[in-house]
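Annex B, item 7. Sequence and structure tokens for protein A, then protein B.
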Amino acid sequence: MDGLTTALAAILPSIGVGLIFWFAIRALVNADRTERQALARMDAEERLAAQREAASTNEESKRDRLTSE
């Protein structure tokens, strides 16, 4: 049993460090994914607002041309 205890004592620290590393990398990847989703959502909202503004500006210029003629 002494050999098994020695083997476990030798391998457990490596397993522990590996698990800590895995959890840290997993947290980083999840944070990056969440940030990319938030940025994509913000970009889509900005594009939509710009399209709406362009459409309203286009309608105003059409009205101005019609009233000036």
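Protein B:
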Amino acid sequence: MSLLRKLREQELAGLREQAGKIGIAVGTLLAAEHGRPLRLDTIRMICEYYGKTAAELGLVCQQRGKRKAAPKEDDIKRRDALYVLTAGSGLAFLSPALPYTTAEALGVSRTLLGVLWRASLAEHVETIHGLAALLLRFLESHPAFEGERETRASLMAEVHLILATVARHLMRPDKRLDHLRQAEQQAQLSPDPLLTKAVLDYLGYGYNWNLAPGKEQYGPRPEKALLCFQRGLALKDGPASPALESDLLGGLAEAYSLLQESRQALKTLSLAEDRYASTSPATDPGYWLADAPAYTIPLRRVRILINLGQTQGVMAALEESQRLYEAQWPQAKGRALAELQPRRAAVALALSDQELFVEALGASLGAAQQSGSRYALAMVRQLLRQGQARWPQVKQLEEWAAQVEVSA
């Protein structure tokens, strides 16, 4: 009971909020440790129902785990002591004094990394940033990793890729590039060649997109994007990853579309979509590295068609993307929502569909606020300016412009 008393004292000292943020990850970790991973929405429900104290959260997760399997009693006591402490305070991850064995430290890191990849699309951007930063510090400082430098480098490279994506949504393009450079350095120390391909993939998309809407210095550089994607596709070492190869091909197609090379763009897009059809998160070692869940595939087609000035098939692809998104994350409020909704508004603008534009822009504003994505908010501001110029008589646009401080 002394450990639980200590946890409650920590909570009284102001750690309750931090405990809540780490709770989802730790709850999933506990369940996975006992061979029965829980869905994130189940863990979230547990957090809401048992969220009065972090100690209660830790205990309920342990009890669920024990019902699924029966490890040795000594192992249970050891894990319970460590994991209840972790559930009580995310700050526990910062302490190199935690007595993790190497196997335990790797288990904690791999499980949390898997949680982060999944949650990064569905949870608030700031929450993911905080959890990823905690995990990175843990990997950098814990002595259990001293004999596992290559494995640690692989894990750190993935965390930097997540942080690079988060930095884009926090409108920190220079920080994004810094994380990609660090990911590249760690990938060179890692035995996993897929990491190098992933870094080139992320760099390429950074050159395809405007990383800071409204600021020309961060605008698209498709010539540089082409080189990144071509280099990534030329790397043949390591296991096959249909998802990562599809994402590289899709990025290449998008770069061609920005250069108005219509034939090359559509041909490469078709190859990318064919390649994606054979991917599976269960069997593809690069599935999460590609950061391309199913809803992003028709959304990529939308971007390419709009770049080429083609409207046929755009609405069908957009509706398919929305359907796939809602099937996977019906309650999600993360960056996935913040990436999907502004694209709907951009399509409506391109099609001069006022009714769809107003509906999609309202959803975009809500998505930006719910997800914490400053990138999405910047897109909303840009779309509002364009929408007001197209339909100055629409009062709702004027109200939203005042709400998000859009200058004329």
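Comment on protein B: The mean pLDDT is 79.
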